[in-house]
Amino acid sequence: MQRKDICSVGDVLRQAIEENNMSGRMAEIEAAAAWPSIVGAHVASMTLRPYVKQGAMTIRVPDAGLRQELMMNRSALIREFNRIVGQDVIKSLRFTS
């Protein structure tokens, strides 16, 4: 990256992310951060923060009943994650105990 003009920090970060092919990973992080807004504060407080690796989001859910409920709504959750991020970054959801 050569310095040509004065740029904002945001522009420099965007350029660095694009040059290093990190936009996919950034979208995965954004999707994981959206978990509380998608399921609500109460459900999010009953789970551990999700993590995403290669399009597969894993969420630890200690309560078996809640885990079953989330599994039944898996398709709708995936659609909502991808809608919020603006691209198809989440391919599957896994709920573990």
Percent strand? 5-15%
The helix-and-strand class reads alpha+beta
Q: In CATH, what is the class?
A: Alpha Beta
Succession of helices and strands: HHHHEEHHE
> What is the count of DSSP helices, taking H or I runs of 4+ residues?
6
As for the number of domains, it is 1
Low-pLDDT residue spans: none
Largest sheet: 3 strands, mixed
Integer-rounded radius of gyration: 16 Å
> What is the terminal-to-terminal distance?
45 Å
What would you give as the CATH superfamily? Answer: DnaA, N-terminal domain
- CATH fold descriptor: GMP Synthetase, Chain A, domain 3
Structure description:
The protein contains 6 helices and 3 strands. It is α+β, with helices and mostly antiparallel strands and 97 residues long. The chain has one domain: DnaA, N-terminal domain (GMP Synthetase, Chain A, domain 3, 2-Layer Sandwich). Helix 2 (23-33) crosses helix 6 (74-85).
Summarize the structure.
The protein is α+β, with helices and mostly antiparallel strands.
Top keywords for this entry?
single chain, 97 residues, alpha+beta, GMP Synthetase, Chain A, domain 3, 6 helices
Topology:
Layout: H1 9-19, H2 23-33, H3 35-39, H4 41-45, E1 51-53, E2 56-60, H5 64-72, H6 74-85, E3 92-96
